[in-house]
Predict the 3D structure of the following.
Amino acid sequence: MTSTASAKNIANEAASIATRYIAAWNEQDAVRRRASIAAVFTPDASYVDPMMRNAGHDGLDAMIGAVQKQFAGLRFGLHGKQDGHNDVVRFSWALAADGAEPVAYGTDIAVVAADGRISSVTGFLDAANLPA
């Protein structure tokens, strides 16, 4: 996605891309989560943040499942404005129980492939008050 038209399109699609990404992280049903991962990420997509890294649909599925288990009862939600340019989308998120204050905030930078799926994510932890 390097043309001017694609760059404008990614800016218009940033919120939608981020929403689908967050939905994959929140999907509790293993079969639906796997389908969401396939729809959101390219087959060789990679993810890296200060605490973990993984790649491919199998790796991403295992990682998301482990995060859900570790933070049972908490869900990710978008926080602030999503934006993008060229083939990159930036968005922030919060991790919290429904109706509670977030225990963590972060910002993710996603590279989007020509087919509209995410090919890589670099995550940053902005603030955390994680339970022990």
In short: Residues 1-5 have pLDDT under 50 and may be disordered.
